[in-house]
Amino acid sequence: METIKVNFENGIEMNRIEQGAEIIKRGGVIAFPTETVYGLGADALNKDAVRKIFEAKGRPQDNPLIIHVADRDISAFAAEVPEKAQAMMDKFWPGPLTLILKKTDIVPLETSAGLDTVGIRMPSNETARLLIKASGCPVAAPSANISGKPSPTNFKRCVEDLDGRVDMIIGDGSSIVGLESTIVDYSVHPPRLLRPGYITYEDLLVMDPEVVYDEAKTRADEKEIPKAPGMKYRHYAPKAPLTIISGDVEKAGKEILKRTEKYRSEGKVVGILAPKERETMYNRENIRFISLGSEKNSSEIARNLFEGLRMFDDLNVDVILAEGFSETGVGIAIMNRLKKASGFNIVEV
């Protein structure tokens, strides 16, 4: 397949938006930017087009897709919108919040993975909204990567994964959030936070004190169909095995250095993922240190997380050691992604 590649380095080009919309209208698949990560989109109401998303990603079809809309009128796709869910939409849309709601029959089972619910969100990225509006349909869009790999947050990574697998790739800078959307399930009572994100659990509780978060419930059993993306299978993973060293900063640093010496004695190249404040500590031979930003700025760390994981693939490291982060605010989402990237390989010190 010949993939059309367009990068809006000098501003949005409406003729290219229209070109992308025409591809979606005729059942094609395109990668496009959002504020969270880049998405891999197709007409959410066209079951044949939706199947092409799974084929391009190499993704199991028992994983539901989020549908992206260009405005807050979702009555065609959601059978019911609870009052508190509407309040969430009014507060956080457009933005990185997905709501799980009972779906209407117009949404095919291929999009919802056979469930009677569907995830819906309205992205804040202008290119994304223009594309959805021009397409005249909701756009189903998981992250624009090969299934299991770290989600792409820029044009270059989309091209690496999907060139020759999709009809078109549109670039528009780096994603400003860097983590997939927060997902709240309003098809149940009390509502449940299924995937933490940039909109934090604390943010949600201000709007609806009944929202429940249980980390164990963010993982689906292998035999059940997950209600939201990312609840099943290994996600966000670099090629090299990743271990999280979590706990007191000083103790974690000593444990990482201890393990590093062991790996280096075996001739292995070690990747270390940590805040920039630790760069001097880890400045040693045969170590590939990648900074996610300042430990004082959780938004910066979140924005750089997936790109940092992908950089280790570029560096061909043999093993990766990552410092854990405080699980408060956006830190909950950062650790959620790191844990899944490591296959929940965590060492507490």
From TrEMBL:
Entry's Gene Ontology BP terms: regulation of translational fidelity; tRNA processing
Binding site for L-threonine: 36, 68, 121, 141, 181
Record Pfam families: Sua5_C, Sua5_yciO_yrdC
Compartment annotation: Cytoplasm
Superkingdom of source: Bacteria
E.C. numbers: 2.7.7.87
Main location: cytoplasm
PROSITE patterns: YRDC
Occurrences of domain YrdC-like (ranges): 14-199
GO cellular component terms listed in the entry, alphabetical order: cytoplasm
InterPro entries (UniProt xref): DHBP_synth_RibB-like_a/b_dom, Sua5-like_dom, Sua5/YwlC_C, Sua5_C, T(6)A37_SUA5, TC-AMP_synthase_SUA5
Binding site for ATP: 59, 63, 117, 143, 151, 195, 236
Enzymatic reactions: L-threonine + hydrogencarbonate + ATP = L-threonylcarbamoyladenylate + diphosphate + H2O
Keyword entries, A-Z: ATP-binding, Cytoplasm, Nucleotide-binding, Nucleotidyltransferase, Transferase, tRNA processing
Major enzyme class: transferase
Example GO molecular function: L-threonylcarbamoyladenylate synthase
Role of this protein: Required for the formation of a threonylcarbamoyl group on adenosine at position 37 (t(6)A37) in tRNAs that read codons beginning with adenine.
Family, similarity comment: Belongs to the SUA5 family.
Protein name (database record): Threonylcarbamoyl-AMP synthase
Organism: Proteiniclasticum aestuarii
